[in-house]
Design brief:
The complex is a heterodimer of chains A (77) and B (195).
Chain A lengths: L15 H9 L4 H14 L4 H9 L7 H13 L2
Chain B lengths: L9 H17 L5 E5 L8 E9 L1 E2 L2 E5 L2 E13 L9 E12 L9 E6 L12 E4 L3 E4 L2 E4 L5 E2 L5 H11 L9 H16 L4
Antiparallel strand pairs in B: 1-2, 2-3, 2-5, 4-5, 5-6, 6-7, 7-8, 8-11, 9-10
Classes of the chains: A mainly alpha (77), B alpha+beta (195).
Chain lengths: 77, 195
């Protein structure tokens, strides 16, 4: 699985509804998966690949990789 | 109209507010944003805290070694009020210092904690320090990234102290040391049951 950081400002593409939910601090399970999908795509990964690599602690050693690892922890709850 | 989910426990919001008050009085006005998941069947609920503007961001810090980016990420678990023990406990933390504020850069050092690694057979130290730092063992050089250098439980107060005292990050308030001491006491008393 190739991990390729995107250089565009992908965070600007987060849907307004998801942004609002994050500001309120409450995400549904579907929204957590949506956020993981968006961040995974930012490094060229699918949702499933990102979850697999996060649990294997094999994501890039970057802030985005760390954030994905922690978001995946929310799925386990 | 969408059904309203149950309110997050007050203790969770209190925990987030405590961390943000601490940060805003010491090294950065950047707020930690809480992302909560729906409660599990047993009533436990997990939340993630990180600096976020849509995606994750680093808090920019001026230091005696140049501009640094601070990453703070925590996953905490709020437990039902009918369970014994502290109302909130940390499941994972990630603290990292980057040169500059590019979220795609590898940090200089990372403090990490995983209460329950996904691999149940994992035998490495749950609380450790890593980074792309070469360590010489006589003729052999090993990267700290290949080791799990054990640490104690590292608090946000510890990281802030390191930034101010050792890296020369200017403190927002002159009484930063007293603020850290008081905050640490509150953390021990209120959130980990004095343990």
């Amino acid at each position: 699985m190739a991990v390729t950081p995107r250089t565009d400002d992908w965070a600007m593409t987060i849907p307004a509804e998801l942004q609002l939910a994050m500001e309120e601090g409450e995400l549904s399970p579907e929204q957590v998966r949506q956020l993981i999908t968006i961040e995974a795509q930012a490094i060229g990964l699918s949702f499933d690949d990102a979850v697999h690599l996060a649990r294997a602690r094999q994501l890039p050693r970057t802030a985005l990789g760390a954030d994905l690892e922690l978001l995946v922890e929310l799925l386990a709850a | 109209m969408a059904a309203r989910r149950p309110e997050l426990p007050g203790a969770v919001r209190g925990f987030r507010d405590r961390l943000n008050t601490l940060l805003h009085r010491t090294i950065t006005p950047q707020p930690l944003i809480m992302t909560g998941a729906t409660p599990a069947a047993d009533g436990a609920q997990r939340m993630q805290f990180t600096f976020r503007q849509g995606g994750p961001v680093l808090a920019e810090l001026q230091s005696r070694v140049g501009v640094l980016g601070l990453y703070v990420g925590q996953v905490c678990e709020a437990r039902p009020s009918d369970q014994d023990g502290p109302p909130i406990r940390t499941v994972n933390y990630r603290y990292a210092l980057h040169v500059g504020t590019d979220i795609n850069s590898e940090p200089v050092m990372r403090w990490e904690f995983d209460r329950r690694p996904a691999d149940p057979q994992a035998q490495w130290s749950r609380r450790h320090l890593q980074g792309p730092i070469p360590l010489s063992f006589g003729p052999t050089t090993v990267s700290l990234n290949d080791l799990h250098l054990p640490t104690g439980y590292v608090t946000l107060e510890d990281v802030i102290r390191f930034c101010v005292h050792d890296l020369g990050v200017p403190a927002i308030r002159s009484d930063w040391n007293d603020i850290l001491i008081q905050s640490y006491r509150e953390f021990k008393d209120q959130f980990v049951g004095g343990r």
